[in-house]
Amino acid sequence: MLQGIPSSTSRVREVLPIAPRLLLSALLLLAVAPPRAAARQRGADHGSAVIVVGQEPSTPVPTLLGAKANNDVSDLLFLRLARPGRNLATTDERSFEPELARSWTRRDSLTLVFDLDPRARWHDGVPVTARDIVFSFERMRDPAVDPDRALLLRYVSAVTAESERRVVIRFRRAYPEQFFDATFQVQPLPAHLVDTIPPARFAGSAFVQRPVGNGPYRWVAREPGRRLELAADSGFFLGQPKVDRVVFLVARDPDAQMNLPLDGTADVFEATPPVSGPPRLAAHPAIRLVTAPTLGVVYLLFNQRAYGDRSRPHPILGDREVRRALAMAIDRGPLIRSTYGATGLPADAPAPAAHWTYSLVPRGPAFDPVGAKALLARRGWSDHDGDGVLDKDGTPLSLRLNVTTTSAPRLTMAPQIQQQLRRIGVRIEIARVDGPVWAQRRRAAEFDLDFASAVMDPSPSRIVQSWSCARRGRGNVRQYCDPAVDSLFDTAISSSKSTGREWRAAYTALQADHPAVFLASPLTLFAVHARFRNVSLRPESLYHDLWRWSVDPARRIARDGPAAAP
Q1: Which phi and psi (to 5°) does residue 153 adopt?
Q2: Which of 150, 157, 173, 270 could form a disulfide with 143 if both were Cys (CB 3.0 to 4.6 A apart)?
Q3: How far is residue 273's CA from residue 269's CA, in Å, rounded to a whole number?
Q4: Do the beta carbons of residue 492 and residue 506 sit within 8 Å?
């Protein structure tokens, strides 16, 4: 980890103290007030947490995840066999922490054996068994069900049950992350509830509307477009949660998101603007700011196929040298400082700062607007009509940039990029659209440039989901495909004695194609109510340890409910 970057093994770092406003809108008070059933007395260190999210967690169920909000909720409802330790060492199976699996052994280089914890139960009381694990692997390895997961599980050859609580997983080849793939990539589903539901009907099933999990929290209710509520499972076999109730409150407007923790309606806000946020929050003693390393990368994506038509190359961005020139014309330093302040870290590839490969990535193109304009001229782009915009064969160098209005950082950077590219004769039209519209246009390839971000798995091998030929038209919406790059990444992923040389070679080859302008891997800046103790945020699953948080008895508030008498 680079100097100055918080290690994923450390606790989140307190940055600033803050305090609440007392104005609560009547509507939001109704949304987060404790239900009558929760009025029973609790331990003095128990309480509730209201989390502000910009995306709606509409399908937080394995095989239907996709959006980050779905993943965050799913990780509270559904456990894995095991999960990486805090050092995120995805190749060291000794560092993994048990969840559904109590223990594991390795029979040979291609076979892992897991013994399930007999205490593990689904929320309907039925024990978690090997049948659930076998069924879930079978379903998630089906490309028709979950193509992203199937790609990551492509080296799993068989999953079988040797007994009610023993599962055997076999692989087609030996590679360093076998254990990670066997444990992290699959969150088991309850076979007794879902194995009769055809995959094509699963998304619309009653189970998805009210899922039954095995994690620290049970499903309570969802109000589409407004909120989702979970309640602690008091019988959770790994320990009783002290945050008894969790509400995910949906707010799409960045200013509205910020106001919810400021006026006391919410307890946690993970998208605090790193430049404008701290000054607004600094006077509030009831809230503090903490930073956490993330697995996110922000980048400007080039569509290499024609706008809305994947059958033809893009008339401008299909030229690698044009893409290179655009990258050279963007000065990332001012963009990162103005948008992320001290929390912004540069990115030169789809490798976030929390990945062990981050330090292996070569530097991207240096800022050189003069060189960029000269390169475009060599490719035939000049201002023939004197309007300030380069053109070629009568076609102006004009591009549309799609930006979602739910992302304050991207809204901050977009006009700066527009201005920087204007200086070399490139016209950028910014299309600011709501989140669902932005996602639909992205899937349909209806963009020239797309302001995107990706949250990676703890493993760098996830790169194949978005930057490989196998995922064209799916996770790889920009249609990027280079078999040579695919081969280099496959070598890096499968090498058992990698010194980093293989990963460096693969990143270098990807950079040479200029499929995107990689901008930043920012730390996440959280606003958290000061009454919470033992606050821990994990980069691969921000709220995974929420059940371990507790409330300072001296700082309880009304929505924490009445405390039990000592």
Answers
A1: -100, 20
A2: 150
A3: 10
A4: yes
What sections of 428-482 are H helices per DSSP? 435-443
- 472 C-beta neighbours (distance < 10 Å), count: 15
AA letter at 380: G
Distance CA 446, CA 400 (A): 9
With cut-offs at 50, 70 and 90, classify the pLDDT of residue 538. confident
What's the CA gap between 89 and 287, in Å, rounded?
A: 32
- Write down the pLDDT at residue 540: 87
276-302 mean pLDDT: 87
SS3 label, residue 477: coil
Please state, in angstroms and rounded to a whole number, the distance separating the CA atoms of residues 350 and 510: 10
For the stretch 321-337, pLDDT in tens is 999 999 999 999 999 99
User: Are the C-beta atoms of 274 and 343 separated by less than 8 Å?
Assistant: yes
The residue type at 322: V
- Please check whether residue 517 is in contact with residue 326, taking contact to mean a CB–CB distance below 8 angstroms: yes
Alpha carbon 215 to its chain centroid, in Å, reads 20
How many whole angstroms separate alpha carbon 256 and alpha carbon 316? 38
Q: Are 404 and 433 in contact (CB under 8 A)?
A: yes
Count CB neighbours of 115 within 10 A: 17
For the chain, what's the residue count? Answer: 566
Please give the full DSSP string across 31-49, using - where no structure is assigned: HHSPPGGGGS-B-TT-EEE
Q: How many helices (H) and strands (E) does the chain have?
A: 17, 25
